[in-house]
Amino acid sequence: xxxxxxxxxxxxxxxxxxxxxxxxxxxxxxxxxxxxxxxxxxxxxxxxxxxxxxxxxxxxxxxxxxxxxxxxxxxxxxxxxxxxxxxxxxxxxxxxxxxxxxxxxxxxxxxxxxxxxxxxxxxxxxxxxxxxxxxxxxxxxxxxxxxxxxxxxxxxxxxxxxxxxxxxxxxxxxxxxxxxxxxxxxxxxxxxxxxxxxxxxxxxxxxxxxxxxxxxxxxxxxxxxxxxxxxxxxxxxxxxxxxxxxxxxxxxxxxxxxxxxxxxxxxxxxxxxxxxxxxxxxxxxxxxxxxxxxxxxxxxxxxx
Length: 304
Hints:
By secondary structure, the protein is an alpha/beta fold.
C-alpha cells in the first residue's frame, strides 16, 4: 500500500463514471472508500456515439488517476469501474459499447439514472425523478429497479424542459393566428424570433429536445408576474411529475413505508412548490452524486 499525502493508494482502485449528453464525471476511491480524485471530460452518451463515449471515459479516468500518480497501464493495481451512462436503452449501441476492448479489471454498466439513485440515497433503497431536458423516474428497493418515463421526446418527457418549450412554441403560434389572447410570455417568445412568424415555424418544425428546452426559462421567468399560460404549463408539468411518482409508488414492495425521493435536473427547483403533498412529504436532498453512485454499483457487483 502506498500513500499520496494522507491518501492510501491500495491495490484495488474503484472508479465511478457518470456519463451524459454534455459531460462525463469520474470519481475515484481506494479500497477503504476514501476519495482519491475526480475529473471531468466530454460527453459520454452511448446512443450518440459509442466511440466518443469511450474516449470521454478514458480521458476523464486518466486525468483523475494522474492527480494521484496512477495510470491505467500500471499492472500493480486492479481498476474496477462502475459506468452510469446515458443511452444504454438502445440495445445495439449498448452491445457495441460492451464489446469494446478496455483496460479495466471489472466493470458494470447501468443507466445514469440508476447511478444517480444509488448516489442520492447512499446505496440504500429510494427513488429519484429527473426533471431536466427530459423526465425520468427510477426507484430501487430490495434489489429491484423500477423505471417510469424516460422514453424520449416528443412522445414522452411530459413536464420536462423540452415539453415546456414545445408547449410554449405552440401557444405562441395559436396567439399569432388569433386562437388565444396574447400574454407577456408569448410576446417575449415572439420577440426571440425577431417577430418573424415564418422563422418561428421553420425553427419549430426542425428543433430537437435540447433546442425546445431552451424556451423553458421563458416559462419559469414569467411565474412571478402570474402569466396565465406560464402558470397553466407549470401546473400541467407538476401533474405529470406527480403521475411519475404515483406510478413508482404503486410498484413498491412495501407500500406502508414510502421511499425517499430526490429530485434532479434544472427544471426541478421550479416545479417543486407545485408538486402534490404526497410527493413533497417524501422529498429528501441527495447524499452523493451519480459518480459516487457508480462506485456503489461496482462495489455491489463485486460483493454479490
